[in-house]
Amino acid sequence: MAEIVLDKVTKRYPDGALAVQEVNLEIADGEFIILVGPSGCGKSTTLNMIAGLEDITDGELRIGGQRVNERAPKDRDIAMVFQSYALYPHMTVKENMAFPLRLAKVDNATVERKVSEAAEILDLTQHLDRKPSNLSGGQRQRVAMGRAIVRSPKAFLMDEPLSNLDAKLRVQMRTSVSRLQKQLGTTTVYVTHDQTEAMTLGDRVVVMRGGIVQQIGAPQFLYDNPANLFVAGFIGSPSMNFVPATIEDGSLRSALGTVTMTDRVRRLLEGADAPREVIMGIRPEHFEDAALVEASARSAGCTFDSQVEVLESMGSDKYAYFSLSGEAASAADLEDLAADAHAEDVPGGGISLVTRLSSASGAREGESAEIWFDADKVQLFDPSSGKNLTYTER
Amino acid sequence: MAGIGGAETTQKKVGWSLLNLVVVIYALFPVLWILSLSLKSSKTLADGNLIPREISFENYRNIFATTEFVRALANSIGIAIIATAIAVVFGTMAAYAIARLDFPGKNLLVGVSLLIAMFPQVSLVSPLFEIERGLGIFDTWPGLILPYITFALPLAIYTLSAFFREIPWELEKAAKMDGATPGQAFRKVIAPLAAPGVFTTAILVFIFCWNDFLFAISLTSTEQSRTVPAALSFFTGSSQFEDPAGSISAAAVVITIPIILFVLFFQRRIVAGLTSGAVKG
Ligand SMILES: Nc1ncnc2c1ncn2[C@@H]1O[C@H](COP(=O)(O)OP(=O)(O)OP(=O)(O)O)[C@@H](O)[C@H]1O
Ligand SMILES: [Mg+2]
Predict the structure, then answer these.
(1) What is the three-class DSSP state of A267?
(2) pLDDT tens digits in sequence order for chain B, 281 residues long
(3) How many angstroms separate the alpha carbon of residue A15 from the centre of ligand 2?
(4) d(Cα A4, Cα A66) in Å, to the nearest integer?
(5) Nearest CA-CA distance, residue B279 and chain A, Å
(6) Strand A251-254 vs strand A241-248: parallel, antiparallel, or unpaired?
(7) Does the CB atom of residue A192 touch ligand 1 within 6 A?
(8) Which-ligand-closest: CA of A194?
(9) B171 touches chain A (CB under 8 A)
(10) A84·B168 Cβ contact <8 A
């Protein structure tokens, strides 16, 4: 076990592609770190550099205080779980798991003991003599984990280890990965595409975009205080709503009406050199059916009327979709996000809103509803730089 | 409906079986003829019967009594095995590099090696004769092994690189992460998975070396290194008045046996789909 430090680590591929740019990251001993970001942002490259499978172009990588840039993967004492599992097809489950120990010339008795321990933890005991081709996806995934844990490495690296599993198994394996990591207390770097994995698994999340780290922090902190439009839009599902707004004498004017800024928002804005035109970000859960908001609370926000386009009842709450007339928010960050989600909006489609209302709401599809939102929860972003103007290091 | 369908499939089966039978007879008839000839005595050799009136092992006794044939058999076995082993080892290494690495001139290398295979061997016989005389390896084992390797390598490289390309790259990365040196990763993970390819290649190369006549006849002059295909053409029979057809047939039957054994031995090691289950998707 050891801490891993990336000090201005940069990767430029031989063909000139700059995949990772000056990543600074200090991973504490025993910490569970998640790397997220859209496809091609350099997550796997970063992981492979830590593993030693890719050379580091520039910067320094230290594991346990020692520079390891030049060390071969086998001398770094790190285990990796691949997205494809990469099990050795000609070996049984037992031989697969014993392979790292055999290479390390561990004596037979210890190999037997460690493999059966790992098999016990991963519930693979009855499959030890089978070949990987005869196992189910979830079992293969566990064998891959087993191969990583048997030799108690300094750290685990996992590159989308669950993405090949079906949804139900993924949920199940997610909890086992989390439990396993807590049980072993081994430093873990985990790459994922999945919102839920990012939010639930890690101690801290690293959001990357185009090879550059956007923000590092605890999942809840990132959710509440995104550093910029990109992080705000990337973290959270359904994602944050973005509406263009204008700041005018202490209030915000937008397609959702005019709302007086709360003291908190005003105070934060003063510190940041805010332009007049901003992008207002509101999470779906900060909306509510106005009829359900008590009169006393109403003044803390703003209400607007609009026709419910689609209503999805999830049982515990309802998602109502609206589309307002007006210019949709536009910024480079938002275009990147849309490209990643393959959801380039139809031009001129207006502003689309996703709101989460409580299940008691009487809103009906195709009918008009009065919706309230919490003015204190809005986040304001600079459209040109994407920076969060209401960001706080709470 | 089911009845008609069943009749149809039976009909189809019979049809296919007949067709197969025709092909098999067409292919095996010469072999049967040779076998029959080899089992006839010198008196009944030319009687034209496919099934010999009486079975005689006279021809077999005769060929094994001559050093000419026994020596040639030893030469054939030795030369083919050595050439196959060397060609497969070098072919494996070259094919691995071609499948895995991107180096300048890679395509040129593959192209040139294929060119060698396409070159008409006849046109090389005279220069090879001169070169080997100059080097002093004419009429020796190395004198045959070297050209065999040269012509077998392109075949080996081509077949093997196709097999190597099938092996997921990630397995090697996984081995590295598990603490293997590049050599260990190759020996413990890649080579076992490439084994079917290696055995297939070994069979092909062995057959090529074993059956070669052109080099064997041109680059040898004595029993010292003459292989069976070449030696056969020198068979005269036990006296000069005797027809050597019986002995030649017996020798031909004898030299097909090692090939059959070799193929059977390696075929069991060719397990298709060995890489399944390594990676998903
Ligand atoms: N071997 C390579 N040679 C050149 N460029 C590469 C190579 N591998 C990756 N890249 C580039 O580096 C960038 C980062 O790739 P990387 O595989 O790290 O992305 P990723 O974040 O893991 O994406 P995904 O989520 O799709 O796996 C991409 O733009 C990619 O095109
Ligand atoms: Mg990746």
Answers:
(1) helix
(2) 444 555 678 889 999 999 999 999 999 999 888 898 888 887 777 777 778 888 888 888 888 888 888 999 999 999 999 999 999 999 998 998 888 888 888 888 888 888 888 888 888 899 999 999 999 999 999 999 999 999 999 989 988 888 888 888 889 999 999 999 988 998 899 888 888 888 888 988 999 999 999 999 999 998 889 999 998 888 765 555 667 888 888 888 998 888 888 788 877 766 554 555 555 43
(3) 18
(4) 9
(5) 5
(6) antiparallel
(7) no
(8) 1
(9) yes
(10) yes
Ligand 2 centroid, distance to A40 Cα (angstroms):
7
Instruction: Decide: A17 in ligand 1 pocket, CB within 6 A.
Output: yes
Contact A74 B179 (CB under 8 A): yes
Token duo for residue B154: 């392109």
Chain B residues touching residue A127 (CB < 8 angstroms): none
SS (H, E, C) chain B: CHHHHHHHHHHHHHHHHHHHHHHHHHHHHHHHHHHHHHCCCCCCCCCCCCCCCCCCCHHHHHHHHCHHHHHHHHHHHHHHHHHHHHHHHHHHHHHHHHHHCCCCCHHHHHHHHHHHHHCCCHHHHHHHHHHHHHHCCCCCHHHHHHHHHHHHHHHHHHHHHHHHHHCCHHHHHHHHHCCCCHHHHHHHHHHHHHHHHHHHHHHHHHHHHHHCCHHHHHCCCCCCCCCHHHHHCCCCCCCCCCCCHHHHHHHHHHHHHHHHHHHHHHHCCCCCCCCCCCCCC
Question: With contacts defined as CB-CB under 8 Å, which chain A residues touch B170?
Answer: 82, 84, 86
Q: Which residues surround ligand 2, an ion (CB under 5 A)?
A: A 44
pLDDT tens per residue, range B116-134: 888 888 888 999 999 999 9
Residue-wise pLDDT for A272-314, tens only, equals: 788 899 999 999 999 999 999 888 888 888 899 999 999 999 9
- Which residues in chain A touch residue B275, judged by CB atoms under 8 angstroms apart? 89
A119 lines ligand 1 (CB under 6 A): no
Distance A84 CA to ligand 2 centre (A): 11
User: Nearest by CB to B277, which of A73, A79, A132?
Assistant: A132
CB neighbour burial string for A60-74, b if at least 16 within 10 angstroms, e if fewer:
ebbbbeeebeeeebb
Identify which ligand lies nearest to the alpha carbon of A37.
1
* Pairwise CA distance, residues B245 & B42, whole Å: 9
- Ligand 1 pocket test, pick from A12, A13, A48 with the greatest ligand atom count within 8 Å of Cβ, gives A13
Distance from CA of B160 to the nearest CA of A (A): 18
Check if the beta carbon of residue A149 is closer than 8 Å to that of residue A121: yes
Q: What is the DSSP string of A80-149?
A: EE-TT----TTS-HHHHHHHHHHHTT--HHHHHHHHHHHHHHHT-GGGTTS-GGGS-HHHHHHHHHHHHH
- d(CA B24, ligand 2 centre) in Å: 53
User: Phi and psi at residue A158, in whole multiples of 5°?
Assistant: -130, 125
* CB–CB contacts below 8 A, A to B: 85
Closest ligand relative to A20 C-alpha: 1
Q: What is the pTM of this model?
A: 0.81
- The CA distance from B156 to B92, in Å, is 8
Tell me, using a 6 A CB cutoff, whether residue A41 lines ligand 1: yes
